[in-house]
DNA sequence: CCCTGATTCGC
DNA sequence: GCGAATCAGG
């Protein structure tokens, strides 16, 4: 399908009305949203009414600011009790697991000081899309506190999942 | 995973 | 000029 006068006309109109590229593509037919966007750009009418863009930040080399914000919160009594009933955690040679080398199926429980050289992750098998291995999942996802202390509950006992590098 | 626009580049 | 592929982001 070619961009005839009429079609370009309608494109301009719809775009000006604020329809998205995909909406325009669907309405006009014969073109994909990519085609629409491409045309919009070539017509020089990109950027609609005052979205107030921050400034050309598009497509810049992205610095991975994925600084591990993990904290090795000291284990609290409640956690310790859980710990007691769990099988010992076999120590993998995990000192090399860094935020960038850890796999999606590896436990991301932080070990050590994030600011330290030897900071690493547990690294044991983490299944079901969980960020932690079975062992650490039990620490991370503490059962709901008994309705008794409901009121004073808060502070999720431990480290929040490290955001996997997507 | 759904969507958005932006950019690149072979055609 | 065109638009699919790809990217970056919401």
- What percentage of residues falls in helices of 4 or more residues? 25-40%
Strand order of the largest sheet: 1-2
- Number-wise, the strands total 2
Q: Mean of residue pLDDT?
A: 68
The major beta sheet can be summarized as:
2 strands, antiparallel
Shape: elongated
Class inferred from helices and paired strands:
mainly alpha
**Per DSSP, what share of the residues sits in E-state strands of 2 or more residues?**
under 5%
Radius of gyration: 26 Å
Contiguous low-pLDDT stretches (5 residues minimum) are: 50-89
For the record, give the distance between the C-alpha atoms at the N and C termini, rounded to a whole number. Answer: 37 Å
User: From N to C, what is the helix and strand string?
Assistant: HHHHEEH
Number of helices: 5
Key attributes of the depicted protein:
2 strands; GcrA family cell cycle regulator; DNA-binding; mainly alpha; 166 residues; two-stranded antiparallel ribbon
Task: Characterise the protein shown here.
With 166 residues, the chain is an all-alpha fold. Among the domains are: 39 residues; 65 residues, no CATH class. The protein contains 5 helices and 2 strands; from the N terminus they run ααααββα. Helix 2 packs across helix 3. The longest helix has 12 residues. It starts with a helix and ends in a 26-residue tail after the last helix. About 24% of the residues have low confidence. The protein binds a DNA duplex (11 and 10 nucleotides) through helix 3.
